[in-house]
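Hey, can you fold this?
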Amino acid sequence: MFKALDKWLLPYLLRARPVRLSQPLHVVLCVCDHWEPFHGADRAEALARLGQWEEQFPAVTAGFRDADGLAPAHTFFFPVEQWDDEVIRRLHAFCQRHHTEVEIHLHHQDDTPQNLRATLERGRDRLAEAGLLSCDGDGRTRYGFVHGDWALDDSHPGGGFCGVRNELDILRETGCYGDFTLPSAPNPCQTRVVNSVYYAVDTPGPKSHDRGRRAAAGTFPSEREFLLVQGPLGLNWRRRKWGLLPRLENAEIAGANPPSEGRMQTWIDLAPRLRGAPHVAFLKLHTHGGNPRDMKTLLGDPMRRFHALLAEKFNDGTRYILHYATARELTNIVHGIEHGGNSPSLLRDTTYHSRIANP
């Protein structure tokens, strides 16, 4: 159906509204970039796009800090099937200079479980050797994941763009600490679960993550449960088509849809919160930062204005407390709250997933 409304509209309408707080709302803001510099580009163009990030990102983020004194964060989900040694080397250097990290992105089609496992293990190990992933308290390499073409766990109704129906288990078993693919609407891979940080258990059929258990303070995942972090999805009544119909809001930062105050307020209204911890909103945005159309927003005045807006209106310490976070840091905060923590400031860099030391 149009914009996959048959998947998400009813759960969206039936969602519980955020409770009124007597304390400031902690906003954990995470930008997850489906970063594909080789999309529609030869190697020279891909390296030029990387060069734009190296040159322009510092100017966009300069001078801005969150409540913890940290600069704006960005997580590059790099497609490991498009490996390039120079790109990886320069990404590592970039991440050493900025509040940015690299995780795994993967496009595959008509795949097998055996090949998928091998592909993920090879991508994981190569990124770890380059110093670009994290490890847990036992020293095991961990990674975050975004599925190419949205088709996590063979979820596309046409059967394309994946092919593996035990993908969640393979991700979990190869060290994936969580999936950051969703929301996908208007793509038909969209799940019925919306606006949630939740756990799913793999099933023999496709789209095992169409159902799940919301994460909660004081409740820990079982061995088979796999974490998924969704971004806001719903109807934006602040931005209407023809002045009447609400527009789809799927938390994408795009060239044609830059961030704004109205969108930010809608994101906060929709952002997942853990049961038992309503004072923390997990605001995961997504973008395609290897695409020149979106780079104009991400590396230009629209994004700088957005950071200025955040500093002025969403980090006042009275209504809002802002925390810029990478995907790894957001996950640490989730697990910290599950284990009884309260303040995101103290949980973002715990021992759950720590950066690998420089190679």
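Oh, and this one too while you're at it.
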Amino acid sequence: MDDEEAVSEITGQMLARLGYDVEIAQDGAEAIERYVAAGKQQKPFDVVIMDLTIPGGMGGKEAIRKLREIDPGVRAIVSSGYSNDPVMADYGHYGFTAVAAKPYKIHDLSRIIHDIITVGGV
């Protein structure tokens, strides 16, 4: 989930290159809608990546609270270019499983997602 189309597109390409199926959302409301729909189709998401700040829309901090109500076991990565945000420093307190600072590097995303899926966290 990211409001910047270029970031979403590049991240989606990175994840697809790593072998993951990707769905893109522009804000938290759309991300929640897609998450719920995937679960109903018996194709639940393994991990979600959520941008912390979405101008004019629901950002990651609010979206993760709602996702946790729907699925307490959701595995979510908080993402931002603002590394000094308190959520980035203490992501677990806010309900996230891991953190990924922008700009992404493919090997970092690969490691974070692998650790979440195989170990349950970073």
